[in-house]
Amino acid sequence: MPVPADNADAPCYAATMTSPIASLCLFCGSKPGTDPRHLALAEAFGGFCAAQSLTLVYGGGGLGLMGAAARAALAGGGRVVGILPQCLVEAEVAQAGLSELRIAPTLHARKAEMHDRSDAIVVLPGGIGTFDELFEVMTWRNLGLHDKPIWLLGAASYWEPFLAFLRHLDAEGFAYPRTLALIEALDGLDTLAERVAASRIGPSRIGR
User: Which range marks the domain in which residue 186 is found?
Assistant: First the structure.
């Protein structure tokens, strides 16, 4: 039975990370995309979370990359928390068998709770919804509302046009000095494992 999400409309987050990473927030597409490498990466990421004993916090749906990642994590014995907004309960089709499924009243509340319940953010390929989520957590970090790592993972140079766009913003004078440092594009799950392991060694900033 889904549990209604409470008090998720007003994010108030610590500005620094002082504890090891135990949970990852996943933003990614509710479609599989045309390149099968994206689906393979989503499945591998879900298995990675289970193997690393990392709670996977995601949008709660069973479609596309998000569903593939959740099912892989569950298959590996991992804990998966899904958070669906009320307006998308039917459209996104909740993934069955989640460790926990919560229903948020709005899209904004969903993003806030996903962020609040995770120690770091991983973004896989996706569409405008994924970029909406990415830009919001980047904005929150830019404003000093949190200092959680934001990591991009993607096959076939998926993120290069986005990174080029950020460089374009910088060249045109619309980026703040630390904009390009708000995120880190990782070259694969091995590098992600290194970042997670580093967080478990000590409280030093990750990806800095």
Answer: 20-198
Position of tokens 């596309």? 64
Report the distance separating Cα 94 and Cα 84, nearest Å. 8
Within a domain: 6: no
Mean of per-residue pLDDT scores for the chain: 88
Rounded to two decimals, the pTM is 0.87
Taking only the tens place, the pLDDT of each residue in 145-157 is: 999 999 999 988 9
205 falls within a domain: no
Residue 154 placed within a domain: yes
Ramachandran region, residue 7 (left: φ > 0; alpha: ψ -120 to 50; beta: rest): left
Phi, psi angle pair for 43, to nearest 5° = -65, -40
Q: What is the pLDDT of residues 39-64, one digit of tens each?
A: 999 999 999 999 999 999 999 999 99
Q: Give me the number of domains the chain comprises.
A: 1
Helix (H/G/I), strand (E/B), else coil: 163: helix
The residue assigned the tokens 């593939």 is: 68
206 lies in a domain?
no
